[in-house]
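Researcher: Batch entry, complex prediction.
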Amino acid sequence: MVDVTPADAVPPAEVAEVELYHPHSWWTKYVFSQDAKVIAVQYSATATAIGLVALVLSWLMRLQLGFPGTFDFITPEAYYQFITMHGMIMVIYLLTALFLGGFGNYLIPLMVGARDMVFPYVNMLSYWVYLAAVLVLVSSFFAPGGPTGAGWTLYPPQAIMTGTPGGQDWGIILMLTSLILFIIGFTMGGLNYVVTVLQGRTRGMTLMRLPLTVWGIFTATVMALLAFPALFVACVMMLLDRALGTSFFMPAIVEMGQQLQHNGGSPILFQHLFWFFGHPEVYIVALPAFGIVSDLISTHARKNIFGYRMMVWAIIAIGALSFVVWAHHMYVSGMHPYFGFFFATTTLIIAIPTAIKVYNWVLTLWRGDIHLTIPMLFALAFIVTFVNGGLTGLFLGNVVVDVPLSDTMFVVAHFHMVMGVAPILVIFGAIYHWYPKVTGRMLDETLGRFHFWVTFLGAYLIFFPMHYLGLMGIPRRYAELTDMTIMTESAHHLNSFISIMAFIVGFAQMVFLFNLIWSIRHGREAGGNPWRATTLEWQTPQTPPAHGNFGKELPIVYRWAYDYSVPGAKEDFIPQNVPGNFGLSKEPA
Amino acid sequence: MAIALVLVLVVVGSVLFHFLSPWWWTPIASNWDYIDNTIIISFWITGVVFAAVVLFMAYCVFRFRHREGNRAVYEPENKRLEWWLTVCTAVGVTTLLVPGLFVWSRFVNVPSDATEIEVIGQQWQWSFRLPGKDGKLGTSDTRDVTADNPLGIAPKDPNSQDDVVVEAADLHLPVGKPVKVLLRSIDVLHDFYIPEFRAKMDMIPGSVTYFWFTPTRTGTFQVLCAELCGQGHPLMHGVVVVDTEQDYLAWVGQQQTFAQLSAPKQTGSANQTSGKTMASGLGVAAKLETVEAR
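Model: Structure tokens for the complex:
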């Protein structure tokens, strides 16, 4: 059934080793560093810091929704600024940056057996441009008029008009500038990740031996390189509309009784550009999570990932299909209704490779040797929330079902479950998993378990009931839910409950942050390979890995990444760089 | 171990919540119970899949948890199982998609006997226009919007003259008659949404969009804006009253036509008209102030 190739077939080195850049001072070692591992930590720290801002913003908006009229300082203007910045920060500046800039930088070179990214200088620039983007974003909080309150989708015309906070002030200009910077920075990093995976792999590391983490990050990066340009042009065009009075997205408009000078632009064109980026963006966040969670499950269940080749092809299929589903965000946008037939069909087709991934994760658990470590717990919680959020996607993707549910709290619940909670649970699992490699110490177990239970159950209790508020018809993006005939007393109570859960879950993240900092010095010593894992990052001579990653000799890869519990082998794992055909290893090729 | 139990509780709790909680859709008031049925099909299929996957996980975690001396089974692939699962998924997805597409086709194809009416959104109020005796709406253009013609109805179009204009007030519709709602905005995106009708559609400045429905019961229904349209968005409420034929005709009889509203005015009606426009202009400003005050 399975094609078997000799596990020790190793091609000769094609490219001679290149001399690495070596830092000469503290500044070039820790600040303007060209080492992907340092850049990864910089990316992660910046993303976490700005993510905390988004967390606080979510508390503020939940204060308003849960206890309407109680907090005078949360005006509708402020509320819209909170939701906009919360959404934008979480999707772009936290999730994208952390998965690709953080995990991508740390794991790609180590997992493919490279000494560093192929273009270290550009890689360094990527981080600094990202930091500039974050600073421009933050500056909008202090600009006259405050940040933009256009919603994270920034739909024109309202995004650049007076009725929207920041529309005719600095808010929208800074937002668009920040996005443009982010995309420039990301492109520099992204090219690096792609070329490193394609050209920087060590001997024996064929594409079909890559850990799924690398497949996920690699495919997501290719997608991002194709998708972000659409957002880039949309931002440039809207900036021109706002600053120079062009009319790319602005038709003839009467604003508060005044005829504006714009004419002939198309608001819906922006939506197409935005979602041509925006839908792949969902998978840009999801695919790295898919990859990472596959490796967490396999390692902690001591079992090969089930159906590796199907998993790789599913990642590629999802990546490709995600470029032809974007308009499912626009079923009620007023685009030609016949688009609905096409986009509903493509959207539901994408459920098939996604379902295959879910089956293969749970089948990996079947007859495994499941260690209920913290990374494993987070991986299990990911499957629950991802399946839940994915299934509600079948509601929203099925064009006619989307009509009543679109723009309601059902959508908010759906996308938080599927691309908020689920990927963040993977991020947590991944941090508990790789922290020992990055710092040499384990995170505290008790704090970790507390963090897991509160986060998983709390997040589920926030977002599961929220679907039903949407089913009632309660719209999203309402700063006030008063004076609405459909809003019942009990729905107000449910909102208060959701808000209280949100504060509790947020508090648990403070415990996690404390754990991250405390364990750097006080955590238990981890050793080089605490999880007894097979992939190359656990086989480095030093932990944390030194500059150049692998000491004198680069590792040679003899097998796939999932030789766990191979019959006949003494240990229940065989690292990728261990030679010898154990006879019973059935690496799919 | 606790996790296995919790996974089971998540499934049981979710199912109980679904059936027992008081939060459910509003009683329907249009012909789109097809959509409700499609949602029910979706709940059943996805609910079964969710329960199956999570319970299977719970079983695996319980049954194959690590104990001293355990060893996982080495099984890289199982092509038959993988294809079998793929085919089953494809069948499930098709079962969801096909009824969905049939209902969508009903949703986008308007019956020929539907009456066209127009809804105009602007920050932050709803206005309406009904075809007069000729049964036709006149053309419109945002460029024609003036203080005296706030909806931008083409002043020279003969079809415009008998159009009934309902500015910033309640809309009435007769029960049981299909309506094609033409949607127009003069400033930003809005979305005409009545939860009880299950239908909604964005309105885009510069375009005319549409949806159709048949009101199936009389009553008063609240209109909500479902597309973020600036800081007054949550206050952009309106009212649609579904009347019996008789009540509807009585209401229409009291409304003014475009020609009446824009006729060269005698003092009385001129005051009334400009007063009204002023009021709506002030209304927006007042709303904005209320919004800010809150």
